[in-house]
Amino acid sequence: EALYRIEGWGQPYFSINEAGHITVSPKGDRGGSLDLFELVNALKQRNLELPLLIRFSDILEDRIERLNACFNKAIAHYNYSGVYRGVFPIKCNQERHLIEDLVKFGKPHQFGLEVGSKPELMIVLAMLDTPGALLVCNGYKDREYIETAMLAQRLGQTLIIVLEQVEEVNLVIAANRELGIKPILGVRAKLSTQGIGRWGTSTGDRAKFGLTIPEIMEVVNKLREANLLDFLQLMHFHIGSQISSINVIKNAIQEASRIYVELATLGADMKYLDVGGGLGVDYDGSQTNFYTSKNYSMQNYANDIVAKLKDICAERHIPVPTLISESGRAIASHQSVLIFDVLSTSDVPLDLPEPPQEGESPAIKYLWETYQSINQENYQEFYHDAVQFKEEAISRFNLGILHLKERAKSERLYWACCQKILKIARQQEYVPDELENLEKIMASIYYINLSVFQSAPDCWAIDQVFPIMPIHRLDEEPIQRGILADLTCDSDGKIDLFINRRDVKSVLELHTFKSEEPYYLGMFLNGAYQEIMGNLHNLFGNTNAIHIQLTPKGYQIQHVVKGDTMSEVLSYVQYDTEDMVENIRQRCEKALEEKRISLTEFQKLLQTYEQSLSRYTYLSF
Ligand code: PLP
């Protein structure tokens, strides 16, 4: 377990069972579990091919319950006289079944939704029917966005339009005059509190979104002049996603609470404070403020927000607001697991060649001697020698002095030296910097049936680290070290950052691949942002996805969402597959006429071509 640190990032949903398989406990500590390997086999028997995204709706429910429980506990503990009303930012994952589940599981908590664009607004207006739930409208807005939002207030939810730019207030005032509807407005403030990590620049004066303090004053003045200052009821901030340090959250809530009370003092009818997203996910299980982790629990997060806000409101005798958070990552990440298979592997040559022969190049002799003499004391120095002798061999080859056969032998000797050095280095407490890379150079390449660009774009775009590990054979020692190479013809289509025993490493410990047996890997905690940000590089489409729910007797497959077929991805780039089939038929006719193809081949080609178009874009065996 320690190897992949599953006890850190997996709790309480993922663990390893006695059969050496991953167990999923979708209800967290509330009981019920599934063997993931057996589940995948059962799904394959239903013709659901890999790669396969499995969504556990019970995990989603558990995340919503936890977040609400933490805020409610903090509210009770600090005697906070307001309530918590969370909203889910649908940008994290807009998939229909997931949003349906979210609305359903959120009902007992009046959990609402947040949108950041017009199309997202369309979804939410149609989906959110929870009485009293909040609908927070963020993002850049035009007149149409604002009018739709104002009219939709009549549907029964509390809809709040958050101003991100000063001009939006003019649109609101105009729409109010025309429609006669009174909106609830918010302002998104650019805090001076600096975020942290990858999204640290989401705040500050030059941040992309929100209003500076002078701009907020301008909005207040405009509303006051129009006699509409009572429209302004919410103050919002978002200091970036995946905040790894609790101190940043403490500083932000302090500054935001001050702005809130000032707005109330200026005469706005303040009722809501929206703390945005940022609640982190512990991807590496280390509970540190490293960018792949977070140094606080969900309860610490809720406590610090509630306590600080209460204090500052009390100090200024301002009633506490309804507290809103827009946690996306912390709600949606855990519920989906991506399962994919290994297709083959490739290794550097590791067998030791014959000793040097009479007349062979001196480079071969030196490499051989280096290999024989490597030991604990000299391995670092001899690594440099091996590199130098290999480079010499290549130079001699380029000058035409070394034959291909000799070059091959010198390269094999070089790899043998590296292998011997690596074995020694692995036993050392401290590995010298220059040898750190050796592990990666020597790693096997595991070719995986997946597109990183489609299924884990953040791995490629921002070096995001998701937990990845085999879902079976975990009772067997993984003696190989590998990196993962995907199906795309792109050298960036690889994964070479993994969570390891102690930290993040460039190689993953894996089992020896046996071509006659399937070898399944799982990528965990990737339910937020990945699906919608995924792209069609090389025309690998959406993967198959299923929704699973635990039942007293086992589990139930609630929905199967078939992945894209080749026809579907081709239509995204404006191909008409009927035309394409017709084109192939006509070319076959011509080839037949010119006797380049037999009738049987003609028939087979056409049949295969047509059938392929309706198939999955990934490889199947
Ligand atoms: N709210 C806003 C305005 C955002 O921009 C984001 C994402 O960056 C979120 C909420 C969700 O943040 P997180 O996924 O960190 O909870």
TrEMBL record:
Keywords: Decarboxylase, Lyase, Magnesium, Metal-binding, Polyamine biosynthesis, Pyridoxal phosphate, Spermidine biosynthesis
Pathway: Amine and polyamine biosynthesis; agmatine biosynthesis; agmatine from L-arginine: step 1/1
Keyword Lyase: yes
Enzyme class, UniProt record, top EC level: lyase
Residues annotated with N6-(pyridoxal phosphate)lysine modification: 91
All residue ranges annotated as the Orn/DAP/Arg decarboxylase 2 N-terminal domain in the record: 83-332
Coiled coil: none
GO MF term (any one): arginine decarboxylase activity
EC number: 4.1.1.19
Family: Belongs to the Orn/Lys/Arg decarboxylase class-II family. SpeA subfamily.
Entries under NCBIfam families matching the protein: PRK05354.1, speA
UniProt function note: Catalyzes the biosynthesis of agmatine from arginine.
Name this polypeptide is given: Biosynthetic arginine decarboxylase
Species annotation: Nostoc paludosum FACHB-159
Gene name, Swiss-Prot/TrEMBL: speA
